[in-house]
């Protein structure tokens, strides 16, 4: 399913580009920037079984919260936008945290 947003196939991105009138590769790269964390998320489940809500009471909630925050920060850094445009220093800070 990730082939729908990743170049050179990017069928969904190319369809969206046709509807919006923007260049297809530019739309595909933007879709990849927003969908980038989806490539890393399966590895998070493999390396942290508490994301599957196993192992005590509080640990799964802490793991889900931290992973969700990490995905949010990586997405913000890749997109370069969080309520307003971010500078390069702010984007680097979002990835570093």
Tell me briefly what this model is.
The chain is built from 5 helices and no strands.
Question: What is the SS-derived class?
Answer: mainly alpha
Low-pLDDT segments: none
Q: Strand percentage, roughly?
A: under 5%
Number of strands: 0
Mean pLDDT: 85
Number of helices: 5
Order of helix and strand elements from N to C terminus: HHHHH
Biggest beta sheet attributes: none
Q: Could you estimate the helical fraction of the residues in percent?
A: 55-70%
Distance between the termini: 29 Å
> What would you call the quaternary organization?
single chain
**What would the principal axes of the Cα set say about the shape?**
flat
Backbone CA Rg: 16 Å
Describe the protein in words:
By secondary structure, the chain is an all-alpha fold. About 65% of the residues lie in helices and about 0% in strands.
Features:
mainly alpha; 5 helices; 97 residues; single chain
Helix and strand layout, with pairings?
Blueprint: H1 11-20, H2 24-35, H3 37-47, H4 58-79, H5 88-96
Helix pairs in contact: 1-2, 2-4, 4-5
């Amino acid at each position: 399913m990730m082939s729908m947003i990743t170049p050179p196939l990017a069928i969904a991105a190319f369809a969206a580009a046709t509807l919006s009138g923007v260049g297809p590769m530019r739309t595909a790269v933007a879709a990849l920037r927003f969908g980038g964390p989806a490539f890393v998320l399966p590895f998070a489940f493999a390396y942290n079984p508490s994301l599957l809500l196993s192992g005590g009471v509080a640990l799964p909630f802490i793991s889900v919260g931290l992973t969700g925050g990490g995905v949010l920060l990586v997405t913000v850094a890749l997109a370069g936008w969080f309520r307003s445009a971010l500078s390069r220093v702010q984007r680097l800070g979002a990835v570093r945290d």
